[in-house]
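Q: Could you fold this chain for me?
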Amino acid sequence: MLLDDIFDKLDNNRVAQLVQLVGDNNFGQVFITDTQPERINKIFEANPIDHRIFEVKSGNVARII
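A: Sure. Below is the predicted structure, expressed as structure tokens.
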């Protein structure tokens, strides 16, 4: 599942609820895109689910968390 730039469409509370919902492993692998890494870090701190964070910059992918 791809959730592309959901912060543009939902408020932070709804994003947190959505992350919690898809984090229950019924959805398999989920990709969430965001332009502000601090924002998604806060969401995952509040919802401790297994996750990885990557940064894509100039065509290169680097794992952050």
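A (continued): The two ends are 20 Å apart (CA to CA).
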